[in-house]
């Protein structure tokens, strides 16, 4: 527990201090956000706001984790390192996208095929490595089974299909967070809630692990490194808590694709490692809802030959077009995300109680 608290505290302090320095450094060099010409007109005043702020909480999370390991003099685990690799790797793809936007002074960065190729490469490397590194009990970071709250025994997949499944999960969550990142503080606050939930889930799984005496029995969790995953989740939560200070409305800095892609990747990585691959769709319900709004908008537009289901997609822009204040949208969407987290945690605990 000490390493969990220590890592989260270090990451939070680093983002609180580091983000302020990053704002000055980025603003001095003119590394500001470009705004979509077809977006809400209220966003035009945000042009030039420093972006790529995700770099700060990526660094803070990694430093916080290794500081916790150094503080407790314990070695890092394969599961934690792999989640951090996915977190940083997806962030690197997003960084390239953000840098091209800034360098070429346009709202679009990497071409869609190049962006997809980068995401696919990082995700496939993660998936392949996650099926390696068995511990003394033969437990690997990832499982060949599709999971809900634990492995679903009759849904075992061959290795190639496991890799494809993990790839789809990573692509879905990373792009989901990317779509939600459209209003000041929205994606930061929503992601912080989910990683906070994963901190609690990992602590519970550690206390009821099949690898310990306390977890012996039918209800124990077959997760390779739950305590170390709790440290990673706590570092992510703390880092986002500190970043929200500067990212809340009116935002002094944006996370950019650097941040949104990395957070989505880390979220999917936590789901894979904790055997909660389907539960994450409930815990991250806001990301699913917003992504669904884009899919419905595109599908309806094509089916009706030009008609729109929403005034604008993603969903939060629809409410902007209706005249809602951005702060009201963010708070209400946070409430929705909070309800999703509460329900997800309730389902997780109910499964334990009912067996």
UniProtKB/TrEMBL annotation:
Mg(2+) binds at residues 178, 257. Its cofactor is Mg(2+). Its EC number is 2.7.8.13. The chain crosses the membrane at residues 6-27, 48-71, 77-96, 116-133, 153-173, 185-206, 226-246, 253-272, 278-301, 329-350. GO terms for molecular function: metal ion binding; phospho-N-acetylmuramoyl-pentapeptide-transferase activity; UDP-N-acetylmuramoyl-L-alanyl-D-glutamyl-meso-2,6-diaminopimelyl-D-alanyl-D-alanine:undecaprenyl-phosphate transferase activity. It catalyses: UDP-N-acetyl-alpha-D-muramoyl-L-alanyl-gamma-D-glutamyl-meso-2,6-diaminopimeloyl-D-alanyl-D-alanine + di-trans,octa-cis-undecaprenyl phosphate = di-trans,octa-cis-undecaprenyl diphospho-N-acetyl-alpha-D-muramoyl-L-alanyl-D-glutamyl-meso-2,6-diaminopimeloyl-D-alanyl-D-alanine + UMP. It is found in: Cell membrane; Membrane. It is an enzyme of class 2 (transferase). GO terms for cellular component: plasma membrane. Pathway: Cell wall biogenesis; peptidoglycan biosynthesis. GO terms for biological process: cell division; cell wall organization; peptidoglycan biosynthetic process; regulation of cell shape. Keywords: Cell cycle, Cell division, Cell membrane, Cell shape, Cell wall biogenesis/degradation, Magnesium, Membrane, Metal-binding, Peptidoglycan synthesis, Transferase, Transmembrane, Transmembrane helix. It holds the Pfam family Glycos_transf_4. It is a multi-pass membrane protein. Its main location: membrane. Belongs to the glycosyltransferase 4 family. MraY subfamily. NCBIfam families: mraY. Catalyzes the initial step of the lipid cycle reactions in the biosynthesis of the cell wall peptidoglycan: transfers peptidoglycan precursor phospho-MurNAc-pentapeptide from UDP-MurNAc-pentapeptide onto the lipid carrier undecaprenyl phosphate, yielding undecaprenyl-pyrophosphoryl-MurNAc-pentapeptide, known as lipid I. This is Phospho-N-acetylmuramoyl-pentapeptide-transferase.
